[in-house]
Design a protein that fits this description.
Keywords: Hydrolase. Belongs to the peptidase S33 family. GO terms for molecular function: aminopeptidase activity. The chain is α/β, with parallel strands linked by helices and 284 residues long. It has a single domain (2-144, 176-283), classed as Rossmann fold. The chain has helices spanning 82-96, 108-119, 137-150, 153-167, 173-180, 201-214, 241-249, 267-270, 272-283, and strands at residues 2-6, 9-18, 21-28, 32-37, 59-64, 101-106, 124-130, 229-234, 256-260. β6, α2 and β7 form a beta-alpha-beta unit.
Length: 284
C-alpha cells in the first residue's frame, strides 16, 4: 500500500485480490466515501481524474479499475460478464468495510450501478448516473445508432480502414479514438481534456456482446424506489435527455434528471465544475 499525506488530503493506491483478479483501487481525500464506476466497458478510473479530484476536499473518493481494465489484472483466459462485475463490486464493498455505497456511475458505469443496486439494494445509499445509457440493451443500441448518425462520411470511411488495420495489428486503438473522441463532446476543444487512458478492446467486445444480449432491467427496479437517484445528462449527449425519458426514467420515475448545458457525453471532463456541484449537493 502507498499512502501519502499532503496537508489535509490523504491518498492511497493498492490492489485487492478478488478470486483470481487483482483489482487496482485508489482512494483520495477524507470524509463520506463516494465510489466511482468508469465507463467503457474496458475503460479505467483515470477518466475521472484530475477533473473530479477537487471533491476530495469534502469527500473520500474511491476509484477502481474494473476487471482486466487499467491497472487491474485478470488471469489469462478470463471471461468478462456483467454479473462478474457486480459481484466484484460487492466483494470490494466488503473489503473496504462500507455498509452502504454512494456511487457515481458514468456511461457503462451507470449501467453497472443499476445492475448492482438491483442485486444489492440494501447496500446502496444514493446513486448518481451520468452520461446515462438506460435500463436495457435498447439504450445501448440507441447510443450506437446516434453515434453513427453523427459521424461524417469521411470519418466513417477512416474508421472502417482503421478497424481493419487494428484487427491485423497494424493500427492502435488510440488512432480509432482520435477519430471518435470529438463526437463525444459538445465543444471540439474539450476532446483534448480527457486523460490519456487505456481501453481494453477485448473487455469492450466481450462485455458489449453480453450487454446487447442480456442487459434488461425494465420492469425490475421497483424495489430500488427508496434509493435517491440523480441523473446528470449533457444536453448534447449521444443519448439526449429527452430520449432518457423512455430509456431510463420510465423505469425510475422517482429519479431526478438535471441537464448539463453545452455538454456532451463526457460530463465529468467537459463540465467538471457543474458536475461536482451537483454531486456535492446531492451526497451532502
Amino acid at each position: 500500500m502507498i499512502i501519502m499525506d499532503n496537508c489535509s488530503v490523504r491518498e492511497s493506491a493498492f490492489y485487492h485480490r478478488i478470486n483470481e483478479d487483482k483489482i487496482f483501487v485508489r482512494r483520495i481525500g477524507k470524509g463520506k466515501p463516494i465510489l466511482f464506476l468508469h465507463g467503457g466497458p474496458g475503460g479505467e478510473h483515470r477518466f475521472f481524474l484530475p477533473h473530479m479530484a477537487p471533491l476530495s476536499e469534502a469527500f473520500e473518493l474511491i476509484f477502481y479499475d474494473q476487471r482486466g481494465c487499467g491497472k487491474s489484472v485478470a488471469p489469462s483466459g478470463a471471461s468478462f460478464t456483467m454479473m462478474q462485475e457486480v459481484e466484484a463490486l460487492e466483494t470490494l464493498r466488503k473489503e473496504l468495510k462500507i455498509d452502504q455505497l454512494n456511487i457515481v456511475g458514468e456511461s457503462w458505469g451507470s449501467m453497472l450501478a443499476l445492475l448492482y443496486a438491483a442485486k444489492y439494494p440494501e447496500n446502496v445509499e444514493k446513486l448518481v448516473l451520468t452520461a446515462a445509457v438506460g435500463t436495457s440493451y435498447e439504450g445501448f443500441g440507441v447510443f450506437e445508432r446516434n453515434l453513427n448518425d453523427r459521424l461524417k462520411d469521411e470519418d466513417k470511411n477512416l474508421l472502417e480502414l482503421l478497424s481493419a488495420k487494428f484487427e491485423k495489428g497494424e493500427a492502435e486503438l488510440k488512432e480509432i479514438f482520435a477519430v471518435l473522441d470529438p463526437y463525444y463532446v459538445h465543444s471540439p476543444e474539450a476532446a483534448a481534456w480527457k486523460a490519456d487512458t487505456f481501453s481494453n478492446a477485448s473487455v469492450n467486445e466481450e462485455m458489449g456482446k453480453e450487454i446487447r444480449e442480456n442487459y434488461d432491467l425494465r420492469g425490475k427496479l421497483s424495489h430500488i424506489s427508496h434509493i435517491p437517484i440523480l441523473i446528470l445528462q449533457g444536453e448534447s449527449d449521444i443519448i439526449s435527455p429527452k430520449e432518457l425519458e423512455e430509456l431510463l426514467l420510465k423505469d425510475l420515475p422517482h429519479a431526478e434528471l438535471k441537464v448539463i448545458p453545452e455538454c456532451g457525453h463526457w460530463t465529468v471532463v467537459e463540465k467538471p465544475v457543474e458536475v461536482m456541484h451537483h454531486i456535492s449537493e446531492f451526497f451532502q
